[in-house]
Design goal:
This protein is about 30% helix and about 25% strand. It is of the alpha+beta class. The protein folds into two domains: about 80 residues, 2-Layer Sandwich (Alpha-Beta Plaits), CATH 3.30.70; about 90 residues, Alpha-Beta Plaits (2-Layer Sandwich). It has a four-stranded antiparallel β-sheet with strand order 2-3-1-4, sandwiched between helices. Strands 6-7-5-8 form a four-stranded antiparallel β-sheet. Helix 3 crosses helix 6.
Length: about 180
């Protein structure tokens, strides 16, 4: 039996740095034995059918293959379509009433305890807000991510140390859910 997955690559194809062409990423995933491979945008979103249920092993294999092929390390998270749908369904903000640029999800490599963010003065960032979910953080940034002071604060090493994290806007979150439906 096989499962639909999304691979979320962190920090590639940004301002011409750490280039991973999507055609080569699709080819690489095929060489790793995955099927029904497709990509979305240039920012490191790939969907594929895999025969194992070990997300960590899939991510580690992809990370090794990317470093061998392209010569630099890239953090990867691999998540099932069911997980992605669950994250979208659990959104604590009124996603249907917001623009895609106003809502973001940061996916983490593991569960994150709220105590990690206890020192953050969330009131100082209003109307921006965040909420934690299942290995995810939801960020509401009404003026978009580029103007979000809360996003900058949440990205500080004090809050991210030891985590693999990568963010997607709400439009991409929903597109990946759609693409990973079995």
């Amino acid at each position: 039996m096989s499962t639909m997955y999304a691979a979320l690559l962190r920090g590639i194809n940004v301002s011409g740095h750490r280039r991973v062409p999507m055609a080569e990423l699709r080819e690489l995933l095929g060489e790793l034995g995955h099927e029904d491979v497709t990509t979305y945008l240039q920012s490191g979103n790939a969907v594929f059918r895999g025969a194992t249920d070990d997300e960590g092993a899939l991510a580690a294999g992809l990370e090794r293959a990317i470093e061998e092929r392209f010569g630099f390390p890239v953090d990867c998270l691999v998540r099932t379509g069911a997980y992605l749908a669950g994250v979208a369904d659990a959104c604590p903000f009124p996603a249907a009433r917001l623009e895609g640029r106003q809502l973001h999800v940061t996916y983490f490599d593991r569960a994150v305890d709220a105590s990690r963010f206890a020192s953050l003065d969330v009131e100082a960032f209003r109307p921006e807000e965040f909420r934690l979910g299942d290995r995810a953080l939801y960020l509401y940034a009404p003026d978009g991510l580029g103007r979000s002071k809360l996003a900058v604060a949440l990205g500080r090493p004090a809050f991210t140390r030891g985590l693999v994290a990568t963010s997607r806007n709400w439009n991409t979150v929903l597109k990946l859910v759609e693409m990973t439906r079995d």
